[in-house]
Design a protein that fits this description.
The complex is a heterotetramer, with two copies of chain A and two copies of chain B. In chain A, the strands form two sheets. In chain A, strands 2-1-7-4-5 form a five-stranded mixed sheet. Chain A has a two-stranded antiparallel sheet with strand order 3-6. Chain A has one domain: Beta-grasp domain (Ubiquitin-like (UB roll), Roll), CATH 3.10.20. The N and C termini of chain A lie far apart (36 Å). Helix content of chain A is 28%, strand content 32%. Chain A is globular, with a radius of gyration of 12 Å. Chain A is built from three helices and seven strands; from the N terminus they run E-H-E-E-H-H-E-E-E-E. By secondary structure, chain B is α+β, with helices and mostly antiparallel strands. Helices cover 34% and strands 32% of the residues of chain B. The longest helix of chain B has 18 residues. Chain B is globular. Chain B starts with a strand and ends in a 6-residue tail after the last helix. The relative contact order of chain B is 0.24. Classes of the chains: A alpha+beta, B alpha+beta. Chains in contact: A-B, B-C, C-D. The interface between B and C is medium-sized, with 32 and 32 residues. Strand 2 of chain B pairs antiparallel with strand 2 of chain C, so a sheet runs across the interface.
Chain lengths: 85, 152, 152, 85
């Protein structure tokens, strides 16, 4: 399946990625499984997505937790806890 | 109900007068304005940059207003949140709520701000003479949000 | 800290910007505007007249602000209350509070309004097509005030 | 002792008095005792000050209860519960 990925704030800056199109194997994917997959890209990715840093995720503009399922065509985003207002 | 994410500053008086238009049963308008403080925990802030997640921001702000409307009698509500570079003392955010009764207006306005602080995808980066850094999350913001779960 | 009792209308945006001046550690401004509603329990209100007790009014409003300052961190606070004839949808009262933190600003502003409603010597007379009458006290106002005794 | 009296809102309108200077016998006076004295002026006075209508009192611009003592030179005010804001 194909998804669109977005990174924001500290993640975007550190990973040096703001968005990418990703093709995943055709099997069930949760946010956690996606994070584990991306973490294999290298130390920085591992630290950013699976490390001490709290990471929040959204699917199609809705905040979700690690167990949320990803579907074909979804827009998935990773970012730090928000600090607006 | 409307939300706006913008680079430009806003005029509180004008926004409130617009919000009141075409509503005759408003008895109360409560507004909150958040400002850039020039002192944070560590250093003197010389500038702030606000990043957001276009698309999700608007959706999450509308959802927060909708949630407030299920809990209190809200006639109308407005959120304006600025993004981009901001200087100390500049306005960051406006939340304005109109209602027939003041209790509803106060509660809904504070609820919207507390949820905005934890759920709306904005990120602040502070630029100080010692360098730039992303603002850390405050646990007091989670506490402020969570107390609404114990209230009617 | 300032209080004003006046016949003239006020400009919320201007008043807030004045209140913010010369304070650099303000992170939050909460304001409340009370309006003349055109519907009351009985009839359609065509006009309202507000009477007050000159001298005592200012003193009681200052005392309410002082009390709020003992309970929350308040940078500055302003109360403007109009008197004389008022038409539906006109502004009656403005309470604005600035603080470093939003929780303090919200609580102090709502506290000031709740106390103003029960302690400040103003009286409303409504003029309706059926005649004029003094507005009755609402028990909800006493309840709103009293709940502050059970809160920190 | 001499005091200055003020009436507001419904009281002012019904009693048709907004202010008066009053000389009281030189003996201790509370708000309640003053109300009882004024009530003797007639039915309307009795109804307004000692009747079902809730009356609030202030001495020198401070809200007080029925047991508050009045001193020479005081400004005393009677009015209905307030309805501003």
């Amino acid at each position: 399946m194909k998804i669109k990925l977005f990174y924001f704030a500290r993640l975007k800056e550190t990973l040096n990625y703001s968005t990418e199109d990703l093709t995943l194997p055709d099997e069930p994917y949760t946010i956690l499984k996606l994070k584990a997959l991306l973490a294999k890209r290298g130390d920085t990715w591992g630290q950013m997505l699976m490390g001490k840093l709290k990471v929040r995720a959204a699917i199609n503009h809705e905040l979700v937790d690690d167990h949320a399922s990803i579907a074909d065509g979804d827009e998935v985003a990773f970012f730090p806890p928000v600090t607006g207002g | 109900m409307s939300v706006r994410v913008q680079l430009e500053d806003f005029d509180v008086g004008f926004e409130i007068s617009q919000l009141r238009k075409s509503h005759n049963s408003i008895g109360a308008v409560v507004s909150f304005v958040g400002l850039v403080r020039d002192l944070n925990e560590r250093d003197t802030v010389t500038q702030l940059t606000l990043e957001h997640y276009p698309g999700m921001t608007e959706k999450s702000l509308m959802a927060i207003i909708a949630q407030a409307k299920t809990r209190w009698h809200v006639e109308d509500a407005l959120i304006i949140h600025r993004v981009g570079p901001l200087m100390p003392n500049e306005q960051i955010v406006l939340v304005a709520v109109t209602s027939a009764h003041r209790g509803d207006a106060f509660s809904a306005c504070e609820f919207i701000m507390d949820y905005l602080k934890t759920d709306a995808p904005f990120w602040k980066k502070e630029i100080t003479p010692q360098g730039a850094h992303w603002v850390e999350v405050k646990s007091s913001d989670d506490m402020a949000k969570n107390r609404w779960n114990n209230k009617n």
